[in-house]
């Protein structure tokens, strides 16, 4: 029994060498054996699922989405608030300057109208104590040196002109008020409108079927506008 044990050991070693490849115990083969196999994954990027009421963008900010109705109501409450709500701050000086200019012109023309109206009324009455029209002339001017018929025509023309300019300024203020509301509504509605320069027109000749019984083709032009 002791004499046969080495023979069996040698026989087992020979069987192992025949089964295992010759270069299995080399450093390169052992490194490949010990290295873990790579995990194969699909190259499809992960899909980001969001809810319908998700209001944040990819950078974590809430996108600016103004309401046209709110912009109109704010502009109606005070001209310029709709432009501030729409973040069009550069329009605010234009709105304020327009209203200030029209208000000043209305006040100045209204004062001119009252002065000329009072002078014209004093020219038409027969009371010598009412002579406000003399305030339009230098102190050295006497009433006897003036032509009352000429003064009546001039004062009537001036008062009518001042009243017309005053009314035009009032109409301008109302128009500017309505324009501010319209601008706020349109600006809020077109906030997400595509204004990129990617606009093109494609056109090409084509054969079109003529209407009627003949059914003969006709040469035409086919075009498409991309925006």
Please, how many helices?
A: 6
Biggest β-sheet: count, sense, barrel?
2 strands, antiparallel
For the terminal residues, how far apart are their CA atoms? 97 Å
The secondary structure category is mainly alpha
For this entry, give a set of tags.
227 residues; mainly alpha; two-stranded antiparallel sheet; elongated
Topology diagram in text:
Elements: H1 5-19, H2 27-34, H3 68-77, H4 81-85, H5 92-124, H6 148-189, E1 200-209, E2 217-226
Antiparallel strand pairs: 1-2
Helix pairs in contact: 3-6, 5-6
Can you tell me about this structure?
This protein is mostly helical and 227 residues long. The chain is built from 6 helices and 2 strands. It has helices at 5-19, 27-34, 68-77, 81-85, 92-124, 148-189, and strands at residues 200-209, 217-226. A hairpin with a 7-residue loop joins β1 and β2 (217-226). The protein is elongated, with a radius of gyration of 47 Å. It starts with a helix and ends with a strand. The model has no long low-confidence stretch (mean pLDDT 77).
Structure summarized in a few sentences:
This protein has 227 residues and is mainly alpha-helical. The chain has six helices and two strands; from the N terminus they run H-H-H-H-H-H-E-E. The protein has helices at 5-19, 27-34, 68-77, 81-85, 92-124, 148-189; strands at 200-209, 217-226.
């Amino acid at each position: 029994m002791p004499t046969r044990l080495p023979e069996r050991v040698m026989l087992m070693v020979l069987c192992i060498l025949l089964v295992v490849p010759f270069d299995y115990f080399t450093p390169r083969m052992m490194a490949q054996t010990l290295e873990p196999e790579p995990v194969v994954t699909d190259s499809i990027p992960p899909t980001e699922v969001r809810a319908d009421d998700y209001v944040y963008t990819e950078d974590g900010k809430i996108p600016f989405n103004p309401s046209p109705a709110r912009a109109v109501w704010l502009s109606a409450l005070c001209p310029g608030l709709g432009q501030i709500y729409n973040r069009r701050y550069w329009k605010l000086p234009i709105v304020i300057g327009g209203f200030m200019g029209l208000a000043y012109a209305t006040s100045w023309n209204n004062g001119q109208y009252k002065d000329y109206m009072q002078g014209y009324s004093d020219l038409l009455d027969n009371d010598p104590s009412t002579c406000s029209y003399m305030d339009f002339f230098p102190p050295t001017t006497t009433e006897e040196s003036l032509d009352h018929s000429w003064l009546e025509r001039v004062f009537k023309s001036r008062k009518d002109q001042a009243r017309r300019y005053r009314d035009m300024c009032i109409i301008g203020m109302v128009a500017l008020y309505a324009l501010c509301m319209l601008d706020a509504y349109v600006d809020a509605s077109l906030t997400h409108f595509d204004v990129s320069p990617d606009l093109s027109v494609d056109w090409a000749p084509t054969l079109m079927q003529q209407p009627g019984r003949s059914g003969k083709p006709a040469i035409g032009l086919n075009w498409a506008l991309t925006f």
